[in-house]
Amino acid sequence: MPSATGEKVWIIPDGYIPELSSGALTSHESICVLNTASEDAELTITIFFEDRDPIENIAEVVPARRTKHIRTSSLNNEGTYIPVGVPYAIEVKSNIPIIVQYSRLDATQAENALMSVIAYPIK
After folding, report:
1. Residues in a beta bridge with 89
2. Mean pLDDT for the stretch of residues 46-65
3. Coil, strand or helix at 73
């Protein structure tokens, strides 16, 4: 039986969804999650802001032995979404250890930029 790899809490301190994109691609960000375990990973995501209350208790599931790419623009709690053009940070909590990577496609100008980093794990 495959065991879980990773940590249960991950932090992504720099999030930002641009208001405008140029060309055919749309700027976006994704939380990329790898679940190596033989059971589903139940995630609880919190979005923190500089000047407003967090969006809390956003639920996502990553099936056993799968990966899932979660676009931050799709995250919501009862219809409350992350606003565009506003800096934010992300906390990802899981019931089992997982691996979290964060990716951003910046298409705000003709020369697109893609950035991807491993999130900060909390032990």
Report:
1. 48
2. 97
3. helix
